[in-house]
Amino acid sequence: MEGYLSSQKYLITWAIGHLVSLKEPEELDERYKRWRVADLPILPEKMELKILPKTKSQFSVVKKLMNSKGVDSLICATDSGREGELIFRYIYHMAECKKPFERLWISSMTDEAIRAGFNSLKPGSHYDALYESARCRSEADWLVGMNASRAFTLRYDALLSVGRVQTPTLQILVKRRKEIDSFTTEPFYTVQADFGDYQGTWFDPAKDGDRRILQEERAKTIADKVKGQRAKVKTAQCDEKRELPPQLYDLTTLQREASGMLGFTADKTLKTAQALYEKHKLITYPRTDSRYLSRDMGPSVKKALLSLPETYSQLAALVLAQPIPQSKRIFDDTKLTDHHAIIPTGRKANISALTDDERKLFDLVARRIIAAFYPPYVYNATKVITEVNGENFVSNGTVVLQEGFKQVYKELQPKKKTKTAEESTLPPLAEGDERIVKKATVKKDQTKPPKEHTDASLLSEMEHAGRRIEDEMLREQMKGCSLGTPATRAAIIERLITVGYAKRKGRVILATDKGVRLIEAVPPEIASPETTGKWEQALEKIAQGKGDSERFMEGIRKLAAFLTKYAAQNAAEIYFEHEERKGKGKSRKVSSSINVPCPLCKEGQITENEKAFGCSNWREGCKFTIWKDCVSKIGGPVINEKLVKALLVAENGDLKGSTGVLHYRDGFITFTPKK
């Protein structure tokens, strides 16, 4: 039988991701195949499980082994965390297994760590609280996502996917888009003074060193005031600064740096890392949120460094020249989570067998394990204040004292044509030194809007979502709160793009019109990171045995019911393009312009979908919306394209018909029945 390994003492089998999951609504009851408001909220008394069809054969193997007469007990060796526990328990339940089981809990895959884990196996019951937390997370996502998605889809007649992680992530993109759209560019000016062997920029000491001058005339006045005048060094300060070497990679940090340095999307980084891990066996498990190694992994680090390709030997030699230092920035058992940081495995790499993307990503991981053990980057930071005729000018410069870990990344740094002011080297200067201002120039610039999000910045926002919470007390409580896990964030971003809430434009990710409208449609209870943060806090308490899972799930059921009621009764009048469902995950937009200018904003065009007429210029704030059934319930006609066109050109906005009179006033239609 395939699907397992055997030895004299053990039978070893595995899951392929999740072998078991929660049933879909239509699998619970056939009536849920049709999406109807009357069936919402869907709140099953008991959540039922199903065997996933794609991995059914492997489940059969696992079930047969679990219930084999030759097997007395089981060892759960899934990932040491919430999701690993869930995978095992779901399989155990669906296999109808009653045998006792123990838990192997390790975060390192060294021989020593595995042996130690087997020597300290604990009864599976010790992890019941962790399973309860995992089960609550799984069922809560189902109840909220399934009900909210159906409710808002039915409310707006458009395919709308809503979820506790996906929707707050979308809000981050929407908030940035609105910040950019509402941003007004303003000009400002700076004054640069040339002192001969160094330069300085004017600043205002009364405004925390602000260098911007809002009036051009004032900037020119300052330039004229100092030109050709005697300058005196007011202060000259030189401080030695140290930048510590970077820590090892977790997945999110690797994704951020691959985005910035290689232009990879988060999804591309994850898939490439998975190939390096699964196919080539060159890096350790990539779906980790830890940047630390266990203290027993010193030999693994040494082996990894010795096994790196020849191109890294010169860089690695500095680290290998002495015993691997046991720095707590790298080796700390107390900071380990489900898995340790991403490092090379110690397997000899055949670089020619890798794709270009795989080579580039392996290069980042290889350089990181070298750089982490290098000395810090040390430099002198110089700040000089020069006074001229009562005006102050600041000059900054650096002098590198020790290149340290930056030497490892020299080859990856693009060559700069010019140095920034902070990178310039200043001459030796002391208080009282004098110069003559050779020239003073005025430079015009303008304020810039916030930058669009990239994979790197969006991942960072998701990782530190707690800092976005406005309530100061709650923000402090949830400063460690994040959206998603390292393993799921890339999929969440891609999901937003797949369902049409976001799009890529080069390296940036932008919220689409549909995404903006969804955030306007849903309540803050599902769009705010506060909700996710409160969930995670409650789930963590349950995992620690300090929380009440029944109370938590009761709150989730109330939230699901609230969201369906909100969609039906309180959701704003927002225009979405209609989409018809064509199988799971596929949709087709059905909308068209009727070639009529919008009577409200005078700029957009009227567009039609299955249920309403709206304005194409909604992004600029136009709220024109006419629902086709807006008067049919009081005896009026169903509004169609012909009636809309006739109403908009009718004298005084009145249109007589056989059943009565339609009235159009300021974007609203009313109806007076014929007496």
Protein model, in words:
The protein is 35% helix and 20% strand. Strand 5, helix 3 and strand 6 form a beta-alpha-beta unit. With 675 residues, it is of the alpha+beta class. Helix 8 packs antiparallel against helix 13 and helix 9 crosses helix 12. Strands 13-10-11-12-9-8-14 form a seven-stranded antiparallel β-sheet, covered by helices on one side. The protein folds into five domains: 117 residues, Rossmann fold, CATH 3.40.50; 151 residues, Topoisomerase I, domain 2, CATH 1.10.460; 126 residues, Distorted Sandwich (Topoisomerase I, domain 3), CATH 2.70.20; 121 residues, Topoisomerase I, domain 4 (Orthogonal Bundle), CATH 1.10.290; 83 residues, no CATH class.
Could you name the key traits of this structure?
single chain; about 675 residues; alpha+beta; Rossmann fold; Topoisomerase I, domain 2; Topoisomerase I, domain 3; seven-stranded antiparallel β-sheet; four-stranded antiparallel β-sheet; 20 helices; 26 strands; flat
Major β-sheet strand ordering: 13-10-11-12-9-8-14
Reported CATH architecture of the largest domain: Orthogonal Bundle
Mean pLDDT: 89
> How many E strands?
26
Q: Helical proportion?
A: 25-40%
3D shape: flat
What is the C-level CATH assignment of the largest domain?
Answer: Mainly Alpha
N-to-C CA distance: 82 Å
Say what the CATH topology of the largest domain is: Topoisomerase I, domain 2
Give the number of helices.
20
Summarize the biggest pleated sheet.
7 strands, antiparallel
Q: Which stretches are poorly predicted, pLDDT < 50 over at least 5 residues?
A: 582-586
Kindly report the name of the CATH homologous superfamily of the largest domain. Topoisomerase I, domain 2
Our count of domains comes out at: 5
